[in-house]
Each structure stands twice: as C-alpha cells, then as structure tokens.
Amino acid sequence: MNFRPASPRLRCVLPLAVAVAIGAGAGAGAYALSSHGSGTPSASTVVVPAQPASSTKTVDSLTELYKQDAPGVVDITVVSSSSANSSNFPFGAPGGGTQKQEAEGTGFEIDSKGDIMTAEHVVDGATSIKVQFDDGSTSSATLVGSDKSTDTAVIHVDVPASKLHPLALGSSASSQPGQSVVAIGSPFGLAETMTAGIVSATNRTITAPNQFSITGAVQTDAAINHGNSGGPLIDTATNTVIGINDQIESGSNDNAGVGFAVPIDRAKVVAQTLIAGHQVRHAYLGVLIRSAAGGARVSCVVHGGPADSAGLKVGDVITKFDGSAITSADTLTTAVTTATPGAKVHLSLRRGGSTQQLSLTLGSQPSSASNNNCSQ
Questions:
Q1: How many angstroms separate the CA atoms of 150 and 57, rounded?
Q2: Which of these is catalytic: 69, 124, 134, 151?
Q3: Is 121 a catalytic residue?
Q4: Does the chain have fewer CB atoms within 10 Å around its N or its C terminus?
Q5: Which domains are delineated in the chain?
C-alpha cells in the first residue's frame, strides 16, 4: 500500500490515549471519541405518519431512529499501562515506573453473538476492557482483533443475545454530500448523545494510527468530539452505519464541524476477517506519492520494497495501475488498497519525456509507515 504524509492542515486524531492515571486527579475526565448507537436493524426509511393539527403529541423521525439505535451502542472503558514519563500521562506518577490509565471510548454491536466494532485507537494497549450498555449494566470484553491500517477493532462480550441490539451495516460507497446522518456517542462523557448533520464530502483521505492512508473516508458536520471515537455514523434514510467516527479537523481539538469517519465498506471486511480468526493483510507498493497532472508522482521509493525492487524511481508519474487510470495520489492509494498482497500488477508511468511499462509483485504492508527508508 502507498503511504502519504499527514495533511499540513491541523487534522487532530482524538485517541483514547488522552487519559488520566487512576486515582491521580480530582474529577479529571479524559474521553476518546466514543459513540453509542444501534438497535433493531432496519433497511427501510423511518417514516412518521402525519399528525392531525389538533394532536398534542408529535414524533420526529430522528426520535424514532434514536429509540431504535441507542440500545446498540456501548461505552467502552479501557485500562492500560503507561510509563510515568509518557506524554500521555498528564498528571505524572509519584516515584516513576508504570502506572495504570483509564480512558473511555465507544463501540456498536454488529451481531447477536456479542461482537462489537470500535476504533483501533480506542482499545490499543488495553490490559482490560469493559463495556456499559444503555441500561447501565456492564460486562467485561475481550479483544477479538484489530487493524491499525483501517483504525478498526472488534471486541467481544459474552451476554445473552436478547441483550444485544446490533446495528445494520450499510455502504459508504453510495454516500453522497447532502445526505442526512447522525452520530450517537458520549462526547466528553455525556452518554447516549445524538448529534445530527449531513455528509459534507466523500472520498476524503485521513491518516491511520500507523501513518498509512485511509481512503474513502466520509466527512460530516455532525458534531464529533472526544468520547465519540469508535461510534457509528448512521445514514438516516436507511438507518444503516456508513462509517466509524474517527477524527476531526480543528484548531481547538474540539468540534469545528469537520469530522471524518472510517468508511464502513473497508471496516466491515476487516471485522469479518478478524471474527473469522484470520490476520488482516494489506497490499503494499512501497512509495510515497503526491498528486500530479495526469497521475501520482513518486516522491520516495522505500528501500527494499516492491517498487524499489522493480526499478521505480523518484520523479516517476504513475498513470495506470493494472490497466486502470490513475488521476491522483488518492486513486493510486485506493487501487493498491483493494489489491491483494502477492498479486503481480502492471504499471504505466511517465519518466522524463517517455512512457514506460513496469511489472511488480505487491508486498504486505509493514506495521508502520514511519519505519520506511527512502531510496534515492
């Protein structure tokens, strides 16, 4: 997979790591982006019958959606260990050493077996995980698996199926600017909070926890804050989840009306793989790229990577990937993302004033893009 640098604009990932030492502060709460929401899955539009003018009771469609979905969203409390000198340990630790931290995030139920989807950064490094349901009851949870490259994780609870209200997963590929969406979660610890907005844009690129790119992200102006991370972004027309609330872009580190959700089309494939007990693998090209006229320009070739071994050079402009036109860095990243590790692919590229063809075998994405060394 390609890797790309974070945007020079201030895009703040709101991770669970902003936590407090247990017992180390008076009422100091720390909240990751978290979310609550789900209920009886429904593939149909929520329709509210017309009320007579004399009626003293009106019911909004969003009210009905909230009633259906909120029971399927859970608070996630994670305990982890941190060095006293860690920047994620804001209150210090007497005597140094390792201290426990507790932080909060959100997840949503995706089946009647007890599987819950959330963001990877919510459960990263957890030594224990506890979920709280909308009725106030709690259950310990275990980590099924996680994937940093899509910031997706699945945890599991052993509770009766009658207690679960899984949300229906929709399609992020069909999302369009202007469609109505809601986010349900616990911004700043205020559980069962629903915020409403629209899809502001689609096919955005955000940066994963391991510094690789997540393409196809859904941008929304539905308010997202600390405590919403890992929760669902729900399309109100179909009452289906189209994304996992993940990041905001803000100068204040709080909601500014520009939020991003990991596309559910990618996240649900990862979740299915994890639940099946398999390792998630992503294809890897091994280049740093930027958009250029008519393609994606290579600004770095990772030493020893597939592109390096095949002879790709800095300055090459990739114009086709296995026959598909490449018009930007995002289209190349998406093409590689949807490919299979080990697949042999053909590239068309511009080098100097000539067009060249090149074949290579895609590798498997390493654990972090920050470990890559560029060949010159």
A1: 44
A2: 151
A3: yes
A4: C
A5: 9-46+61-280 (2.40.10.120), 283-375 (2.30.42.10)
Residues 6+ apart with CB under 8 A from 149: 1, 208, 210, 212, 214, 280, 282, 365
Q: Which of 113, 72, 117, 74 is nearest to 270 (CA)?
A: 117
Helix (H) or strand (E) holding 70: none
**Considering the chain, what percentage of its residues have pLDDT values greater than 70?**
79
Check residue 32 and give its pLDDT.
Answer: 32
Of 36, 115, 121, 147, which residue is the catalytic one?
Answer: 121
Comparing CA positions, the residue from 256, 227, 262, 255 lying closest to residue 241 is 262
Has 226 been annotated as catalytic?
A: no
Pick from 315, 318, 313: which is nearest to 295 by CA? Answer: 318
Tokens 């009647």 identify what position?
112
Residues 91/107/200/223 CA torsion (nearest 10 deg): -50
pLDDT on residue 16 = 32
Residue 252's pLDDT is: 84
Distance CA(128)–CA(147), nearest Å, equals 18
pTM: 0.81
Q: Which of 80, 186, 229, 250 is catalytic?
A: 229
Distant-in-sequence, close-in-space partners of 46: CB < 8 Å, separation ≥ 6: 61, 64, 65, 68, 236, 239
What pLDDT is attached to residue 29?
A: 23
- Cα-Cα-Cα-Cα dihedral of 244, 249, 251, 253, to 10°? 10
And the tokens for 59?
A: 């019911």
Q: What is the band of 375 on the pLDDT scale with cuts at 50, 70, 90?
A: low
pLDDT in tens, 66-95: 999 999 999 999 998 865 444 433 333 345
199, 274, 157, 193 alpha-carbon torsion, rounded to 10°: -10
Average pLDDT over residues 15-35: 30
Q: How confident is the model at residue 185, as a pLDDT?
A: 92
Q: What CA–CA distance (Å, rounded) separates 98 from 86?
A: 10
183 band by pLDDT with thresholds 50, 70 and 90: very high
